[in-house]
Every structure is written in structure tokens, then in C-alpha cells.
Design a protein that fits this description.
This protein is mainly beta. The chain is 12% helix and 34% strand. It folds into 2 domains: 32 residues, no CATH class; 114 residues, 6 Propeller (Neuraminidase). The chain contains 2 helices and 12 strands; from the N terminus they run H-H-E-E-E-E-E-E-E-E-E-E-E-E. Strands 4-5-6-7 form a 4-stranded antiparallel sheet, with no helix packed on it. Strands 1-2-3 form a 3-stranded antiparallel sheet, with no helix packed on it. A 3-stranded antiparallel sheet has the order 8-9-12, with no helix packed on it.
């Protein structure tokens, strides 16, 4: 059966290379239709830490464990990867600069991208639903304009990341 006759777009024609993708899309479509509009997970990606390259680096794989790829190559310790809602960026805790800092990797660009450095230990990022803010755990001291002095915060929101 050809792609036009089956209704499958040509870029997803039934070939051995596309079999997994077609199966995942099909499974997601079933969940969506029978689940009342709930999106499926078959095309999800999982970001995790692995030391198989001799260092703790960020890796990514399909939800079923296939297509495992190393994302970072920092030669240090990376922890707690958090992917942005659009899947374009991964924030994680890095020990690469000698301290504990947040780092950012662009999946779209395929490289690390600049991210502000803050004093103290900054770790455990969590994305806002719109992907424009991060909440981080920090031991740094920040100046809060409405307070007359510097303050130390346990959680800090970083807004307007410029992405």
C-alpha cells in the first residue's frame, strides 16, 4: 500500500526505519481519541543522567528506552535535568565550573547556551508551564527591592529568560 492510499503522510511512509515512529504516533492517537483528548506518551522523550561515558552527563532517550543519546559532554558532574515545556532546552545542575550552578543546553542548537551565574549554590530547576521562567533552589543572597537589605532565599524565580 502506498502512502497516499493509506492516508499516512509521505514523510511517514511505512518503511522499516519509520516503523517505531508510526507505531508511537498510532498509539498516541488511540489514547487521544479514546481518552477524551488526553495526549499519549509514546512520543515522549526522557532526560536522565548516566555515567557510562566516565562522567555524569545528561542523556536522552525515547520513552521505551530506544535511541539513547548523550546530550552533554562536560567531563564533569551533571544532575537533575529538566526539559522546557517546548522540548527545546534542558536546564540542569552542573559542577563543571568548579561550583554548583545551573546550566542550559539548547536541543534546537545542539549546544550549551549562556545562562546567568548567581552567587551560592544554585540547583534543582523547575520550568514554568509557559517556559519563560525557572524556579531554582539557591543558597545565594539576592537583593529584594522592597526590603531594605539583602536576603537569602531557599527558592528563587528567574523570570523573562529571553527565550
Amino acid at each position: 500500500m502506498n502512502a497516499k492510499a493509506s492516508g499516512i503522510p509521505p514523510k511517514f511512509a511505512a518503511t522499516p526505519e519509520n516503523a517505531r515512529l508510526i507505531a508511537h504516533r498510532f498509539a498516541d492517537e488511540i489514547i487521544f481519541r479514546l481518552g477524551g483528548g488526553i495526549p499519549g506518551i509514546a512520543e515522549s522523550r526522557i532526560y536522565f543522567i548516566s555515567s557510562r561515558s566516565s562522567h555524569k552527563e545528561v542523556w536522552v532517550m525515547d520513552y521505551d528506552g530506544q535511541n539513547q543519546k548523550q546530550v552533554t559532554h562536560l567531563g564533569s558532574i551533571a544532575l537533575s535535568p529538566r526539559v522546557s515545556p517546548d522540548g527545546g532546552r534542558v536546564a540542569f545542575t552542573s559542577f563543571a565550573g568548579g561550583g554548583v550552578e545551573l546550566a542550559m543546553y539548547s536541543m534546537d542548537l545542539g549546544r550549551m547556551v549562556a545562562f546567568p551565574r548567581y552567587g551560592g549554590t544554585n540547583a534543582s530547576a523547575a520550568w514554568s508551564p509557559d517556559g519563560h521562567s525557572l524556579v531554582v533552589s539557591s543558597s545565594g543572597r539576592f537583593y529584594v527591592p522592597r526590603h531594605p537589605e539583602w536576603t537569602q532565599q531557599a527558592l528563587w524565580a528567574i523570570r523573562n529568560l529571553g527565550f
